[in-house]
Amino acid sequence: MSFRLDGKRALVTGANTGIGQAIAVGLAEAGAYVIAAGRRSCAETVDLCTKVGGTAEELTLDLADLDAAVAALPDELDILVNNAGIIRREDSVAFSEKDWDDVMDVNLKAVFLLCQRFAKNALAAGRGGRIVNIASLLSFQGGIRVPSYTASKHGVAGLTKIFANEWAGQGINVNAVAPGYIATNNTEALRTDPARNQAILDRIPAARWGDPEDIAGAVVFLCAPAAKYVTGAVLNVDGGWLAR
Ligand code: NAP
After folding, report:
1. Which of 19, 117, 135, 153 gives the lowest tally of CB atoms within 10 Å of its CB?
2. Is 149 noted as a catalytic residue in this protein?
3. Phi then psi for 57, rounded to 5 degrees?
4. Residue 53: left (phi > 0), alpha (psi -120 to 50), or beta?
5. Does the beta carbon of 50 sit less than 6 angstroms from any atom of ligand 1?
């Protein structure tokens, strides 16, 4: 049984910061060649990958221009991690169509198209592969004031399962990781609101915010030979939140 990824080529979207950066570094540490993709420079991530003894390059990939992003996805990949995501907060009665479309395009449509492209390439080459999509607690729960985010993350869980069903026979495993409350840019508004911050901490059995590295370990596992019979799963990494 192996947890190593030597010889594998892995692309991570949104790899310049937060959870995506930690996943890129984790995959590099496990031996994968990492393509750190972002709409901004991922030079810092490439440096961090090198510091843990790995190898990495950066790739410009802006999911706001989906045609270009799909065309830019390298043909020869063994691992795809769809991590990039955005959130917009507003009461549902006042939520704008733009905030709906922007979030659905990056969080869901991009995941669909990148998975499809990855699988087309892998199937044509007779190669298996691993996809890990980053879901959310809001793949299971409703949340509040984040309607497009909740819809998109429920969609990510659904896409993960249908792709797993369709591609398992060809050796492409598709799973998702659902992070709990992780300290990144995405959750800054929650952490800086003292009442919300305390309410969240009070409900987490582990009694702390998660670190991006907490998510990276689960992703490395799902990409590793040891997880070859795991597909269609949505793995919660949430300090016990959903168990409560
Ligand atoms: P983050 O620090 O805000 O990172 C989000 C990443 O997505 C950044 O790299 C961002 O790039 C990238 N991104 C956004 N729009 C993009 C676009 N158009 N094209 C390419 N990249 C784009 O937040 P995070 O917490 O690490 O989020 C990573 C993933 O985890 C997201 O899918 C998020 O929904 C999910 N998640 C996070 C939490 C949490 O508690 N933090 C919980 C559940 C799920 P820029 O830096 O350029 O904006």
Report:
1. 117
2. yes
3. -135, 165
4. left
5. no
**37 C-alpha vs ligand 1 centroid, how far in Å?**
12
Q: Which CATH number fits domain 9-237: 3.40.50.980, 3.40.50.970, 3.40.190.10, 3.40.50.720?
A: 3.40.50.720
* Cβ-based neighbour number of residue 6 at 10 Å: 9
Q: Which atom of ligand 1 is nearest to the CA of 138?
A: 43
84 alpha carbon – ligand 1 mean position (Å): 4
pTM of the model: 0.98
Q: Quick check: 160 and 234 in contact, CB under 8 A?
A: yes
- Smallest CA-to-CA distance from 106 within 38, 24, 162, 43 is with 38
Q: Domain locations in the chain?
A: 9-237
How far lies 98's CA from each of 46, 88, 103, in Å?
Answer: 33, 10, 8
Q: pLDDT tens per residue, the chain (244 residues)?
A: 799 999 999 999 999 999 999 999 999 999 999 999 999 999 999 999 999 999 999 999 999 999 999 999 999 999 999 999 999 999 999 999 999 999 999 999 999 999 999 999 999 999 999 999 999 999 999 999 999 999 999 999 999 999 999 999 999 999 999 999 999 998 999 999 999 999 999 999 999 999 999 999 999 999 999 999 999 999 999 999 999 9
